[in-house]
Amino acid sequence: MEPSSVRSQLDRLLAERILVIDGAMGTMLQAVPLGEADFRGERFRNHPRDLKGDNEILVLTRPDVVEGVHRAYLEAGADILETNTFGSTRIAQADYGTEACVLEQNQRAAELAVRLAAEKGVEYLLEALPRIAERFPGVHVLHVGPRDAIGEAEYVRRINPLIEQQRERYTFAGTLDLADMAVFFRNCDVHVLPSINNTETFGMVQVEAALCGTPTVASALPGVRVVSQMTGMGLTVPPRDARALADAICEILAHREQYVRPRAPIAEQFSPMATAEMYEKLFEELLRR
């Protein structure tokens, strides 16, 4: 994704609500019982210097631990993740004799921090398309966003056969700016969010769709299901269930008017001011305990 696109998305989201950034990485890693062997892994098994304490090397030797910290922050409600790269500089890594790995550390850390494309459940939408096409032969999916997410080459290779099977019904529109996203939503009959990871946080994209008059079919995950429950603009289905996903999409396509609500109450409900007031009330309640 281009830096300008990332910046525009951040500006848009910050104008809509408070964004939560994650906390310290080092203290979270220190809470995990890791020994010298964890820091070395197989790759650095015979390294001449001790590596325990080099938290940044863990992105290469124990990426599961680093990813676990990222997931913990997502589960706690973080919107923004920082990479585990505080000491991923040649100067810092020289203390451990691993300065040659700095570029690789930074690249791998970014891959671990990015929201994984595999968790978006695209394959279940692809599997649902033939069933949808039985009732709506003209169905066509526009996929907005980068086609190849960082670190997800294997996932892309795995679903490519499904994409190829549905190539007449599936188009990648790429990354859109704010104005184009509004046009996109207004021209969609239904917005689909088939996420499969229960750490998926609040689906603000559903609010954006609702404000443009477009209902959503989303996975019934803790954060994702909230918007349709609050607005009534859509349906939720069990994750990883292509048949249920297809049936819900068909239901909305057949009776769309039943799932569209007035814009004004939704805009008020999710306005930055209303969100800030809810956070303030929550903090005041917590302080009284």
Quick synopsis:
Helices cover 50% and strands 7% of the residues. The protein has 289 residues and is mainly alpha-helical.
Walk me through what this model shows.
The chain is mainly alpha-helical and 289 residues long. The chain has two domains: 18-113, no CATH class; 117-273, Rossmann fold (3-Layer(aba) Sandwich), CATH 3.40.50.2000. The chain is 50% helix and 7% strand. It has helices at 3-16, 26-30, 36-40, 58-61, 63-75, 90-93, 102-113, 122-135, 153-165, 178-186, 204-211, 226-231, 242-254, 263-269, 272-288, and strands at 141-144, 170-174, 191-193, 216-219, 234-237. The chain has a three-stranded parallel sheet, sandwiched between helices. A two-stranded parallel ribbon has the order 1-2. It is globular, with a radius of gyration of 22 Å.
Radius of gyration: 22 Å
How many separate structural domains?
A: 2
Give helix and strand order, one letter per element, not per position: HHHHHHHHEHEHEHEHEHHH
CATH topology of the largest domain: the name is Rossmann fold
Q: Largest beta sheet, briefly?
A: 3 strands, parallel
Name the average pLDDT: 86
Number of helices: 15
Strand order of the largest sheet: 3-4-5
**Shape call:** globular
SS-based class: mainly alpha
Low-confidence stretches: none
Task: Tell me the span between the first and last alpha carbons.
Answer: 44 Å
CATH architecture of the largest domain: 3-Layer(aba) Sandwich
**Helical content (DSSP H or I, runs of 4+):** 40-55%
CATH H-tier superfamily of the largest domain:
Glycogen Phosphorylase B
Q: What is the class of the largest domain in the CATH system?
A: Alpha Beta
Number of strands: 5
**Percent of residues in beta strands?**
5-15%
